Structures
1.
Amino acid sequence: MKRALISVSNKEGIIEFARGLEQLGYEIISTGGTYKTLADAGVKVMKVADITGFPEILDGRVKTLHPKIHGGILARRIPDHLQQLEANQIDTIDIVAVNLYPFRETVSKPGVTVEEAIENIDIGGPSMVRSAAKNHEDVIIVVKPEFYGPVLEQLQQSGNVSREMRLKLALEAFSHTAAYDAMISAYLAKLTGDTFLDNMTVAGEKVYELRYGENPHQKACFYRTMTPGASLADAKVLNGKELSYNNIIDVQAAWALVKEFEQNACVIIKHTNPCGTAIADSLEEAYDKAFGADPVSAFGGIIAFNRKVDAATARKAAEPFMECIIAPGYDDDALAIFQAKKNLRVLEMKISSAPQLQIKSVEGGFVVQESDQGTVTAADLQVVTKTAPTAEEITDLLFAWKIVKHVKSNAIVTAKNGVSIGVGAGQMNRVGSAGIALTDAEKNNGAVMASDAFFPFSDTVELAAARGIKAIIQPGGSIRDQESIDACNRYGIAMVFTGMRHFKH
């Protein structure tokens, strides 16, 4: 008689799967909670302890770690192995259906203790999964409910499972255990503070396949990281189609920036750069100002709010063509307004802290860094010019500084009265970005300027002075800082250093 060992934390579909195997003549063996679930459903099932002749011990830590289990799983169906099994009174196990303790769910709970987390590190489960996956030519390994149906179908049709299916199931099994170990490693690294390990594994769970990547000829997929914490993958899609690759990247950029502000804020993003950012006494006013900052570039963009959206704001935000809107919430009337536009993607996500690590792939590897969570306050600013900024200018300088942090380098941002005016992004020289940001001379008159890195020459200050800029914020640190300071003093411009750079590539 053929045997199937079933031990799952995720009970979805397991009763139907076990019944199907039972009808095909399989003897079912199981452990703990899975045994009870199957027995209560009327499935004829044996306990693992009845097979091993050894009880579960150590509060269930040792159940299946026994030669009569692993011998039955690992044995090839060749004479030598079968003779050894017979000599040791071990029966073969032909199907292993196992998924693991819910470690991620456990460590995601508020207030979880280290002891609770450790108890949810599965040992027997991964051992059985790996054993069965290694011996996949002779053993069918199933780690996900979505494969129960296809496996049963092939067994019903031919009494066996194709080699192609066995290989796919083995791949899923090793991916399952690798991701599980990666989650545990990430949790322990968080406890110890060891961010950059000698061996780093990044675990991801597929959310859905994307139509394509940045361009139609590129395949793409959206994954959720399997470590605890907020994820864009968990944002509620309240309206519209699934996000595209470019939508996801742009939504992340908009969300990261809008979270910087404590006041009512609106950010409009195009190709990851902010074309309009504003803070105001009301969300409606913040939207009006952000959209008004650059209505041409805003077309087809991403709007992010850091407050629950009301109907008045929604009516205005729904007028132009936009790809996506993301906010912490929506009034019923606001949501109804957005839902009238069937192609507008509307997302809801709670405000949370930024991810701790950023990962970028390079040829044959990847680089990892802490996310840029650096901030400055008025107390951190070093006034380096004869003219000091006014209180109003300091407010605008700090506002512009938050924005420039999220603009592709070389980055220059001008702002006035809590509204971005000009954004110069991604130019190969700083004065080139300044020229773009300062295009509208009339609007920039009396504004402030932020630069993500120091001025290598005084040419940017000269250009700023010609456009009426009154105050500048930049990191400082150039060997020619004094030239820029002298230029500011000539034109009566206030300049402050932050001592912090915000390159963004």
2.
Amino acid sequence: MLICPLVSIAQQKPSLPQQFAAIAKASKGTVGVSVLVLENGEKAGLNNNRQFPMQSVYKFPIAMAVLQQVDQGKLQLQQPVKVLPSDYIPPSGHSPLRDKYPAGNVDVSVAELLRYNVAESDGSACDVLLRLIGGTKVADRYVHSLGIKDMAIALTEQVQVPNEPMQYQNWSTPDAMTALFKKFYTGHVLSDSSYNFLLDLLVNSGPGARRLKAQLPKGTVVAHKTGTSGTDNGLTRATNDAGIITLPNGQHMVISVFVKDSYADQETREKVIADIAKAAWDHFVH
């Protein structure tokens, strides 16, 4: 008779946070996760209130801050902006815009800068947009005005790229990033046209094929933004992906996964993110 309870305990599936913790071990670092199903409020997390460096995930809230100024009439999507050589981030940083126009002094529309910033994770475009809206403090204040407190936008890409240890100043908790995606998706904080414009950029974002979406069924809609630091003597300070996954039943799962201070290789770090997304998918897709 004593055997029966032991058998039933052994057959119980680990909770979602337990699954996250088991997957996270492979990262040889610290993993933060925040998951929320928007329609029913179900949630799960791991280290979800700890601070993690955002890296390029911060280009999502910066894009929201730009589009707020578009909605206010301060900027226009088709407005040309002179991109100066001084706007370009160092060669070690990712910037298709810099690579396309190495001499600078070219006019690029706000809409195209947003596309570079979000869909291509272009650091130079990000800094031009920050210059346009009035700097990192303006983006930071905007995020806080939405009620998102546990997030800080402090440094431009020009400062962050060559100074790896400084990136921790651009931080978020997983819960705060998930809350921002919820606010974006359900809070009507942007006009319909601005919302649809940014959502399309997030869905068609190029980077991150091996992260959140890697193990999900083909055709799954994932509106997301990645972030990745450099690797310094085997230490990678940030490997991130956060966004909104459309479930088969039409519900929406917001998920933010941050991997910090990891000594694992890129394939392993990305697989940790993919495995966590798949575990959450399997849990919420009944």
